[in-house]
């Protein structure tokens, strides 16, 4: 159930947000489901800052925290208490709290976020779309709060920055993002370790599945379209889990000249989950809409049946139409 | 032929280096063979700065400049003249000039470099091992020279930083590296484009060679060491050029648990160029020094003979010693 913006909800300054937090106690910090480096880094950094101020705080997330983020949570506890104040971090909409945290959806006192799409569901909110990550805002907030930036907090803030900018690869990283990162380096952030863990480390199973997926990759339309697939058997053979499959859908589009990258992943029922990634000239969402799917202009999905051959045939027909239209325009 | 340090060679301040450059004219800027983003970015940035000062300058490189660096060379010309002053950038040793530029090996007037292993072959030199890239030094040099940092120069300096830090992933990136990057963002560097071109795009040939290299990867010492190799035949089959081979050496170390990643690349004469990449606990340079090679603590190289089997055997013996020492300490 989407909460509509109530008339008394309002934007507050960082200074007022800090005041609210310092006047409160028994604080819950909410993370979004399928937690990423930014929601977790923001929550952990704020937790550590509020603990310095003697507050009782707990971090709440509807999903388990992936192990790779352990370094941010050293010494952090997750006590259960009745919250007097609820702060959501990096959460654009209460729906993203997920089932388990949905009881808090209507009760968020403060939201700190950088999504321009934020639905302003919280009683008070600090929304800064110009920030590359919520941790970039958290840096200012902790500074305003006069918290000491420990090396652990530095790791948390750096983590949100690097994960939300794809290791500084997306256009959202500004000069200020680099300045905050520089300050976090000075405060002891272990950037090399963090980036290695987040971006450079492949499990053996991931390596195995990647080898196999690359072997299936074929090219069409003069190399403008690449299609790869993953069967359940390939996943089984490589020992890959869901985390290992993360980002596999990006592989075909990474090849030079590819404007439409397609990855087909066999589901339990034998149908194929199709992921389409496109360059600036092609709308992935439109291609997938033809098969009842959808998504963003650059990344969309749908489901097709008919085995590898049948599914590939259908998607290639849709791709062909796109290129024909391109030529005619 | 390795030039030994002559007694009159000396370290100079940036200020003196700038003075030398501004007093000179008809300047050659030398890049190392198999040019990378740092040697090219340094040369292009310095070229543009010196052109602002009205100097006749030319960039010289023993190998062709890969197309992906084109954005740094817009408007840059490569005139042929008899140089009155020769400046080497990012070149640790005159051997790295390659055959074509070897006539200049004994005549380098100034060297700007960040390699701690620099053999101090130039008459005067600025060597700063604490800099993540030579372009990080070039930033200071251009500042000292009072050159205007155009967006093209910003792209050049950012490029050296990001390529030499593996997109901020290596331990050589310091808070100062981020500060310089921030400044380059302010000056108009297109970081998102640069990082996409450098790190996210693979040629078809690159994909082919990567498939093959991944297939050769084997693991040793309980998965703490991974070794992959590339033969000339594999390169031929995949159609890969030197540019396509860039970063191949990083693949073995990317597998979870690997502390020492080794890539062996067959050279024309059948010997193998060994690249060793290590985690924080292991000094790659020491391993390679055993075979007459060298480099940085995290990335070093040497040459071995004896075919795939012989070369692998030798390097694994050296790796074994490292792990034995680790256990005993
Ligand atoms: Mn975020
Ligand atoms: Mn360099």
Automatic annotation (TrEMBL), chains A, B:
The DHHA1 domain, residue ranges: 223-324
GO MF terms, alphabetically ordered: nucleic acid binding
Domain called DDH: residue spans: 27-161
Coiled-coil portions: none
Annotated protein name in UniProt: Bifunctional oligoribonuclease/PAP phosphatase NrnA
Organism: [Clostridium] leptum DSM 753
